[in-house]
Automatic annotation (TrEMBL):
Pfam families: Acyltransferase (PF01553). Belongs to the 1-acyl-sn-glycerol-3-phosphate acyltransferase family. Its EC number is 2.3.1.51. It comes from Methylophilus rhizosphaerae. It is an enzyme of class 2 (transferase). The HXXXXD motif is essential for acyltransferase activity and may constitute the binding site for the phosphate moiety of the glycerol-3-phosphate. GO terms for molecular function: 1-acylglycerol-3-phosphate O-acyltransferase activity. This is 1-acyl-sn-glycerol-3-phosphate acyltransferase. CDD domains: LPLAT_AGPAT-like. The keyword Transcription regulation does not apply.
Amino acid sequence: MPTTSLLIRGWRITRTVIHILIGITLAALALPVCGRRIRRVLMQWWCRRLLHCFNITLTTSGALPDKNTHRALFVGNHISWVDIHAINSVLPVRFVAKMEVKDWPVFGYLVRKSGTIFINRGRQRDAARVIQVASDALTQGDNLCVFPEGTTTEGLGVLPFKSSLIQAAIDTHATVIPVAIRYPLPDGSPNLAAAYAGDTTMAESMQAFLNMRKPTVHLHFCQPISASNMTRQSLAEQAQAEIASLLAMPPRPHG
């Protein structure tokens, strides 16, 4: 993939640092005191600008949610830290993330301040607590997003979706909206350099995006699925199959 010049990378780094400092200021001073609507507007603006700082093009398709969408649980495959900002650029949501995200450089602080719900995947009992917190958030009208694969991948396949957190949608009669996420190259093949997976560090992943001339992230929003009369396992399997189909990948078997 074509890379950028040293001058362009320097300019991107400068504006990214400035934008992150703006985000830290907003997270510390504005988000704790502003109302829900203003908080969502600020989050959406900040995430859109962050994509712009990295020169990332966001494209969308499918049943796009709008500002009136509420009490929806978005479930998606997970490739990069950019996934979060891409989804928030379309519709601000609260994410359910693994506890390790708290320790991400810079972004860890920002996601803590943005209302992210953290789960300790090393403690089986923690799932029950998170399901209750997620259910409360959905009941209050929030939109949530989870990445049921439980980890990031290179985007070459879709791992089996863990179903436990989908229970929150069943308990609150929320809708489940699968989101297929991909980072295509100009020829349509997966951009492996976009993946924040394996032993890649946050710094290395950010540097990879800074080096790319014009990376693209594409979100396809599937039709909402009613959680009524469905088990969490069947919801997880249907969402995984729909996403894998859209990405032209066979879903990896559950179990």
